């Protein structure tokens, strides 16, 4: 259960005109009332020299493991000092939305020192794909050893858009991985194709094999690793630490960014069901927002916030406890969402004066928020 809070204390934070006249499926699905943090806090730059930070994971000792989109990874102190630079990665397709993406560590990291990451895997003949790899962090923390690619999404595509991707762990030590739809019209339709893994959430073991009990095992030609489908570009991914529920945030096209509660076997609609429109202003296919057999988003935004990352807050500001924090790219603020009974009941914008594209976010062991930006900065958001 989440803590009971006073919510909807003000008018919605979004005041701009929506792109469409689409109506929500239920009250509170968009433009909820605003909340305002009462606890004093600071937003401070602690490093300005990161190289394309994309993923951030807190190590058992509190230091920060940060991936860089060009193909780098570093260990950074909570004061912002770069302590180690890690090498040993396979080649990445560093172009447009491709590169070295998310990073995570094995739940048994203190014993096995295994690091996992997602990346755009290049291939000049067949095109790139989203891949998942793992490797053992060396004793001196400067390289990854025994690197293995454990998973490759299908099909490959000659483009550099919308790979996703984030990693989270279930209680049994298996991986959930979000995979983007690869953007272009001729491949995004495969988000609805169960024989392809673009536009999906997959559920695999540490060796990249389908997890027993996955919802599509034994169902025709469906890929057995698929857990849920119908996603556009799912760059936010987190498990609610209180309930254990899996949540995802994703980019819509023009309007229609979503926050979703993920259920096994769920069809989340893209590209045929969306609250967004094409960048051209045209409807996406038939312009359908609700359809039987598809799962509605818990919340959506129009105009977009461009949700680049998300987390559940576990720090030391009591009124933020278990709130959702989503880093915005084009919107250039961090969205705070208050949840009650799996519904959004309050919304706030944080750090909107920094003019940053917020790409990765995590709660540190010291209770502060650490967030990386496309400009190469690492911010610390802490109780004053």
TrEMBL record:
<dbReference type="Pfam" id="PF07995">
    <property type="entry name" value="GSDH"/>
</dbReference>
<protein>
    <submittedName>
        <fullName>Glucose/arabinose dehydrogenase</fullName>
    </submittedName>
</protein>
<dbReference type="InterPro" id="IPR011041">
    <property type="entry name" value="Quinoprot_gluc/sorb_DH_b-prop"/>
</dbReference>
<dbReference type="InterPro" id="IPR012938">
    <property type="entry name" value="Glc/Sorbosone_DH"/>
</dbReference>
<dbReference type="InterPro" id="IPR011042">
    <property type="entry name" value="6-blade_b-propeller_TolB-like"/>
</dbReference>
<feature type="domain" description="Glucose/Sorbosone dehydrogenase">
    <location>
        <begin position="50"/>
        <end position="379"/>
    </location>
</feature>
């Amino acid at each position: 259960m989440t803590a009971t809070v006073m919510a909807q204390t003000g008018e919605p934070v979004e005041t701009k005109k929506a792109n469409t006249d689409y109506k929500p499926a239920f009250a509170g699905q968009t433009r909820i009332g605003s909340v305002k943090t009462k606890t004093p806090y600071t937003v401070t730059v602690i490093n300005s020299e990161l190289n394309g930070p994309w993923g951030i994971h807190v190590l058992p000792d509190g230091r920060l493991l940060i991936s860089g989109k060009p193909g780098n990874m570093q260990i950074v102190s909570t004061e912002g000092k770069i302590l180690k630079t890690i090498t040993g990665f396979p080649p990445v397709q560093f172009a447009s939305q491709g590169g070295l993406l998310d990073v995570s560590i094995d739940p048994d990291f203190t014993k096995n020192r295994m690091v996992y990451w997602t990346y755009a895997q290049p291939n000049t003949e067949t095109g790139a794909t989203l891949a998942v790899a793992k490797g053992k962090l060396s004793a001196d923390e400067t390289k990854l050893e025994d690197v293995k690619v454990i998973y490759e999404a299908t099909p490959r595509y000659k483009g550099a858009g919308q790979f996703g991707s984030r990693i989270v762990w279930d209680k049994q030590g298996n991986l959930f991985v979000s995979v983007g739809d690869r953007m272009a019209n001729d491949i995004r339709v495969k988000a609805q194709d169960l024989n392809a893994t673009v536009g999906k959430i997959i559920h695999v073991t540490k060796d990249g094999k389908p997890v027993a009990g996955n919802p599509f095992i034994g169902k025709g030609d469906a890929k057995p690793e698929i857990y849920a489908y119908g996603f556009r570009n799912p760059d936010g991914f987190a498990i609610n630490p209180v309930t254990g529920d899996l949540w995802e945030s994703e980019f819509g096209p023009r309007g229609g960014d979503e926050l979703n509660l993920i259920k096994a076997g769920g069809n989340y609609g893209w590209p045929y069901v969306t609250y967004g429109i094409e960048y051209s202003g045209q409807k996406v296919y038939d312009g359908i927002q609700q359809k039987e057999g598809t799962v509605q988003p818990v919340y959506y935004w129009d105009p977009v916030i461009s949700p680049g990352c998300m987390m559940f807050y576990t720090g030391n500001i009591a009124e933020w406890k278990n709130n959702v924090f989503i880093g915005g790219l084009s919107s250039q603020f961090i969205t705070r969402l208050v949840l009650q009974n799996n519904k959004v009941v309050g919304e706030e914008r944080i750090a909107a004066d920094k003019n940053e594209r917020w790409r990765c976010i995590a709660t540190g062991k010291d209770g502060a928020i650490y967030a990386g930006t496309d400009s190469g900065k690492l911010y610390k958001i802490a109780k004053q």
